[in-house]
Write a structure and sequence with these properties.
Helix content is 49%, strand content 19%. It is of the alpha+beta class. This is Circadian input-output histidine kinase CikA.
Length: 1296
């Protein structure tokens, strides 16, 4: 290894080397400094953590400051570290060092008082912002001289100062002093000091907070001690207060205890009245002082003055008193303590108030308000009388507590009274509640019973309409609602349409029945909720958050409250059950809603059952319809075969077919030629336009021929159109069909032999219709039968043509006479009256007598017809009366049998009367009505029966005798009058029978069955009148008939039993010719305004032997009654000037009981009301027009006691002797009939000649009883059909 070369040095190389060496030295120093800084920063952090730890460990500022000063000085290697504090309220111009750590070589600054006016003026703001002031050398800085001198006083050469902030206040300064030499303060050192100052500021805040806590703790401790002592005293008083509930005892004890504890001169309790006057209730006073209670007794205003002056302001306190001024309100709120006064003469009180206090001998007082709850009740007043007194806070608090306890005691006493009252009220409420609950239970039970009853009524029927009516009615009454309605949704309308189908509504609210409603909102928004149990409850529709349109809809039906529940048919929403309150809003109760829900469930079940029933019924109806159509077809065919009258066949067939098919129209169409035709018969609804009136018959021909082709009919094929709009019809054809409202139809051909005669058509107007095969088949079969009937009718028409020609004249004559009979009603009374008068004239020729007899017979026949109409009018007016009499039922039946027997025998019929043995002989009912009913029924049976028999059966179905046996001591039964008995009459015939559909026509006025119309007889009133008569007699009439077999008419009546002694003898119909000699002359007054009617009576009575006068009106009758004094007056009721009723009253008023005449009313009005009216007016009896002469004479005989001579008493003696020798077995001779009037002989001859058996027997009954032998001969000959013998005699007499 070689040696290193020596380095040479010269001036040129020395300078750069020195420079490089200096650079290296600085670099080395920097590296050493950087290396030494790292442990220094660590040391700073450790020192900072130590300071923070000590601050947290202790709350003593001196300890914190001392330890911090030591740590900071050692770490910064400073000569002094101190904490400087500014004096409070010095504006940062004075202060002192309160803690420091300083090297021994330097002077201590601790406790040094420093005044620095410059600091407060120039540097304070600098520190408020937390800035640090660093001075490396105070002598190199431009400091004020005074500040520099202060720093040099403490040997300071370099200075580092950080502010100590307590919150936002500058508390002091943290000062770092370098005294030995200047010093360059590093940034890290300043940051370290800043952090130390910040944490010391936190320590200052903590120490301040701890100090406050300690002060508060001390204060609280003292307060607690005082409170304990006070509470002991208060507790003692409160204990005494609580030992009693008597306010007087409480007040007395409290005032005594308070006065002794406070050593006061007087304690009182003062109570306010409502007007803020008041009175002292209780006081406790020391010896020597007057009693305010006693003063108050003698001076009523003694207590009121203070109230009026100041104390009333306790209610709304606003006066400031000395105590509240000194304590700024203290711990008390206004209203708890109102007035504390240490000296009344220094409190600026009003004169009146001071005078009042002087009367109380008070110089100082403390007045505490006593509140009963929040209401000012009175005052607790403590007075010091000897001198002024400073009231301590504890004393005031003590009094406040006592006042509060007094308020509690007063409130408790009040509460006790209230409790007692509440107890009594509670007992009353409890009793009411128990009663209400009992009533509620009763209501609930009643509601359940009502629910059960409604459900029971619902289940009794399957008719849904009846169910709805029952449910709505019951619900409305049970809920006391104004309307209950059932709303049904239109099927397939998605619940947008519907109508109310049932309701029960209270008057005067409107009905919603059949009202249709369209509500798309319901279907879209609410319908799906109702099957899930939704219930709409609206106590008030105007408070229900409803849309305006819905409110208007409800208001339209006057609804103010609404309850709606779904009606479900299975799971489907069928409708709604709606409960409406229309009068006022209504709060629906839960129990009501539940009740309605249960009803809705039951209605849903009923809907399901009704639906099932409807389906079953539809199936049953379909089956029944098929069977009925089969029966109907048989019936139609039978009816077609029963007659050969083509019009009858067409009428019956079209009507039957329309009813069977239930269509709107059935027609028979006949072809006249290949291109012409006509409608010859139709049955249609009443609203349809007759097809016979069609103006465009060629279009109808087109309808029947053009479509389909005529060949289709020729081939026996029908035309079936279910809907004209779906058929290939021409526009003109459619127009005609629409004109007659035709929508669907069937046309089937009618063949007569092999010729297409016409068509049988069935039409539907209202809608299209799918024609069933069975319907087409039925129509085809009927068409075939029509073809056969038409063919038979044509044959019959040829046979009848000759006979019809012969009968035409007779028919015209009969029609003329029938029409003319209706015009005879007005003169009927005069006709019959004069006929009876003329019949008595012996001077008439035989021809004249014959004419007169014809007039009489015609009038009587007209009278019968009029009587029928009159009876019918009475029935329709509801004025028909029952005239009960006692009569012999056996005699009535025998007379009827005798009267009808000849008529039956003439037709070859057996007339049989069967009477049970238990049928009573004497009964009490309306004999006339019973006779008329039997004559009508038996006469009809004989008239319509051609072969067989007519039977009348009479029996007593049930009799109700009652006997009540009383178990008395004698054990004798007591009989009770028998109740009405029931007698049944049945008329059976073997006639052609009556169709079932025509039975209802039997009891319609002026209506006749087909058989009746064919007979061309009668008015159609017989059976309607009979039905009414039977019902009046307490019974009912029924008809059963079987076509081709016969008819059974059955009725019953309720009647009473009669005694034979009660039977009235029959009136004699013998002709009166005069009065028996030896009787007085009677004055008869006839009062009648109609001259012809008046003349009838005048002629009738005057020729008999009475003295007769006439009066034209009631006024003349009154005058003649006074002047002439008649024995009897025939009084017409309706007359001008004065009617018969008023005239009767006046005559009765002007007469005495001795000279009062008999007055018998004459009137054409036979109604019971007028009869009662005239009898009430004073008439003695009543006769209806038109009258018969024998009734007139019988009435006069009854009231005047008359005896008459009769026409038969003047019979020649040779005739009587001849009649006595006639026996029933002898032949009829001229001598036998010559006794009868010529008119009678003429009529008898005609009746026998025309075989009018009824009239023959009626005329035989007219033969007087004295000619009974003649009557027996004629009856025997009629019974044996020996009409030739009768005619031989009558013709001879007529020719003579």
């Amino acid at each position: 290894m070689s040696e290193p070369e020596p380095i040479s040095s010269n001036k040129e190389t020395e300078a750069p080397l020195i420079q490089e060496l200096e650079t290296l030295r600085k670099r080395v120093l920097q590296l050493e400094k950087a290396k030494s800084t790292e442990p220094y920063q660590v040391a700073q952090q450790k020192a900072l953590f130590a300071v923070i730890s000590k601050i947290r460990e202790s709350l003593d500022l001196d300890s914190i400051f001392k330890s911090t000063a030591i740590e900071v000085r050692q770490l910064l290697n400073a000569d002094r570290v101190g904490m400087y504090r500014f004096d409070p309220d010095s504006q940062y111009q004075r202060g002192e060092f309160v803690s420091e750590d300083v090297l021994p070589n330097f002077r201590s600054a601790l406790s040094a008082k420093i005044k620095d006016h410059c600091f407060g003026e120039h540097y304070i703001n600098y520190y408020f912002y937390g800035k640090i002031w660093a001075a490396d050398d105070i002598y190199t800085l431009p400091l004020p001289r005074c500040y520099a001198q202060m720093l040099s006083q403490f040997q300071i050469r370099a200075n580092l100062v950080a502010p100590l902030l307590k919150g936002e206040n500058l508390w002091g300064l943290l000062c770092i002093h370098q005294c030995s030499s200047p010093r360059e303060w590093q940034e890290s050192e300043m940051e370290f000091v800043r952090q130390i100052a910040t944490h010391l500021g936190v320590a200052l805040q903590h120490a301040e907070f701890v100090k406050k806590l300690q002060m508060q703790s001390e204060y609280l401790t003292q307060a607690v001690n005082q409170a304990v002592e006070r509470e002991k005293a208060v507790a003692a008083i409160i204990n005494k207060i609580r030992q009693s509930l008597q306010l007087d005892t409480i007040f007395t004890t409290t005032t005594q205890e308070v006065r002794q504890l406070l050593k006061a001169d007087r304690v009182v309790i003062y109570r306010f009245n409502a007007d803020w006057s008041g009175e002292f209730l209780v006081e406790s006073k020391a010896e020597g002082w007057k009693s305010l209670i006693e003063e108050q007794k003698y001076d009523p205003q003694f207590g009121a003055n203070i109230s009026q002056c100041s104390l009333k302001y306790l209610a709304t306190p606003y006066v400031t008193d000395s105590y509240l001024q000194e304590t700024q309100g203290g711990d008390f709120t206004r209203g708890e303590v109102f007035r504390v006064c240490d000296n009344i003469y220094k409190a600026n009180f009003s004169t009146c108030y001071i005078q009042a206090l002087e009367r109380y001998e008070a110089q100082a007082y403390a007045i505490i308000a006593i509140y009963q709850g929040k209401q000012l009740w009175g005052l607790l007043a403590v007075y010091q009388n000897q001198s002024a007194r400073h009231w301590e806070t504890s004393e005031i608090k003590f009094l406040v507590q006592i006042g509060g306890q007094l308020g509690v005691a007063i409130q408790q006493a009040e509460l006790l009274a209230q409790t007692e009252k509440q107890k009594r009220d509670l007992e009353t409420i409890l009793a009411d509640e128990l009663r209400r609950q009992a009533e509620s239970l009763v209501e609930e039970a009643e509601r359940e019973r009502a629910l059960a009853q409604v459900i029971d009524k619902i289940r009794r029927t399957l008719d849904i309409n009846t169910i709805f009516q029952t449910a709505t009615s019951e619900l409305r009454q049970l809920l006391n609602a104004d309307r209950v309605a059932v709303f049904q949704f239109e099927p397939n309308s998605y619940w947008n349409y519907g109508k109310f189908v049932s309701e029960n509504v209270l008057f005067p609210f409107c009905s919603v029945l059949e009202t249709e409603i369209e509500d798309h909102c319901f279907g879209a928004r609410f319908a799906q909720n109702y099957p899930l149990g939704h219930v709409l409850v609206l106590p008030d529709i105007y408070q229900g958050d409803l849309t305006d349109c819905y409110v208007q809809l409800l208001a339209q039906f006057q609804i103010k409250a609404n309850l709606v529940i779904a009606l479900l048919q299975g799971d489907e929403l069928w409708g709604l059950l709606c409960i409406h309150q229309c009068s006022t809003p209504r709060q629906w109760q839960k129990k009501e809603i539940e009740f309605v829900r249960k009803i809705a469930v039951q209605l849903g079940v009923a809907l399901q059952q009704a639906e099932l029933l409807t389906q079953a019924q539809k199936r049953s109806e379909e089956q029944a319809k098929v069977a009925e159509q089969e029966r109907a077809l048989a019936r139609v065919i039978d009816r077609i075969r029963q007659t050969l009258d083509i019009d009858t066949i067409f009428s019956a067939t079209t009507q039957e077919v329309r009813q069977i098919l239930q269509c709107d129209r059935v027609v028979v169409y006949r072809f006249i030629s290949d291109r012409r035709g006509e409608f010859i018969f139709e049955s249609k609804l009443s609203c349809g336009i007759p097809l016979e009136q069609a103006e465009h018959k060629n279009l109808w021909l087109e309808t029947h021929f053009k479509y389909p082709k005529i060949d289709q009919y020729q081939n026996h094929q029908p035309l079936i159109i279910d809907d004209i709009f779906n058929a290939p019809l021409s526009p003109s054809t459619l127009k005609v069909l629409q004109q007659f409202q035709i929508r669907a139809y069937i046309l089937v051909p009618v063949f007569v032999g092999e010729i297409l005669w016409g068509l049988l058509g069935a039409y539907q107007h209202t809608s299209s219709r799918h024609w069933q095969p069975r319907e087409v088949s039925l129509l085809t079969q009927v068409a075939n039968q029509l073809g056969v009937a038409i063919q038979q009718a044509k044959l019959l028409a040829q046979l009848k043509e000759a006979k019809d020609t012969a009968d035409a004249a007779n028919h015209a004559k009969s029609e003329f006479l029938a029409n003319m009979s209706h015009e005879l009603r007005t003169p009927l009374n005069a006709i019959l009256g004069f006929t009876q008068i003329l019949a008595k004239h012996s001077g008439l020729s035989s021809v004249q007598q014959e004419y007169l007899r014809i007039i009489e017979r015609s009038g009587e026949h007209l009278l019968d017809l009029i009587n029928d109409v009159l009876e019918m009018s009475k029935i329709e007016a509801g004025r028909l009366t029952l005239n009960e009499t006692s009569f012999d039922l056996y005699r009535l039946l025998n007379n009827l049998q005798e009267m009808l027997e000849l008529k039956a025998e003439m037709k070859g019929l057996n007339l049989i009367f069967e009477r049970d043995q238990n049928v009573p002989q004497y009964i009490k009912t309306d004999e006339s009505k019973l006779r008329q009913v039997l004559i009508n029924l038996l006469g009809n049976a004989i008239k319509f029966t051609e072969v067989g028999c007519v039977i009348l059966r009479v029996k007593q179905d049930t009799i109700f005798p009652k006997s009540i046996t009383t178990e008395a001591q004698n054990s004798e039964p007591i009989d009770v009058l028998p109740e009405p008995i029931k007698i049944t009459f049945e008329v059976e015939d073997t006639g052609p029978g009556i169709a079932s559909e025509e039975i209802d026509l039997l009891f319609e006025a002026f209506a006749q069955t087909e058989t009746g119309r064919k007979s061309k007889e009668g008015t159609g009133l017989g059976l309607p009148i009979s039905q009414q008569f039977v019902q009046m007699m307490g019974g009912n009439i029924t008809v059963n008939s079987l076509l081709g077999t016969g008819t059974w008419v059955k009725f019953f009546i309720k009647t009473g039993l009669a005694d034979h002694c009660d039977i009235q003898p029959q009136l004699s119909k013998k002709s009166v010719v005069g009065l028996v000699a030896g009787q007085p002359t009677y004055r008869i007054l006839i009062v009648e305004d109609a001259v012809e009617n008046r003349q009838v009576l005048v002629e009738l009575l005057s020729t008999t032997g009475f003295e007769v006068r006439e009066a034209l009106n009631g006024q003349e009758a009154v005058e003649l009654s006074l002047s002439w004094q008649p024995h009897l007056i025939w009084m017409d009721m309706r007359m001008p000037i004065m009617d018969g009723i008023e005239a009767t009253r006046r005559i009765r008023a002007n007469s005495t009981s001795e000279n009062s005449p008999i007055i018998i009313a004459l009137t054409a009005n036979a109604f019971k009301e007028e009869r009662a009216q005239v009898l009430q007016a004073g008439c003695d009896d009543f006769v209806s027009k038109p009258f018969q002469d024998h009734i007139i004479f019988e009435k006069m005989a009854k009231y005047l006691g008359l005896e008459y001579e009769y026409a038969d008493s003047q019979t020649p003696s040779y005739l009587n002797s001849h009649l006595e020798r006639i026996s029933p077995s002898e032949d009829l001779t001229l001598d036998c009939l010559v006794l009868m009037p010529p008119a009678w002989i003429q009529e008898f001859h005609e009746a026998v000649l025309c075989t009018q058996e009824k009239r023959v027997f009626e005329l035989i009954q007219e033969i007087p009883e004295s000619y009974s032998a003649l009557a027996l001969i004629l009856k025997k000959l009629a019974d044996e059909f020996q009409f030739d013998q009768i005619l031989a005699v009558t013709e001879t007499l007529i020719l003579k």
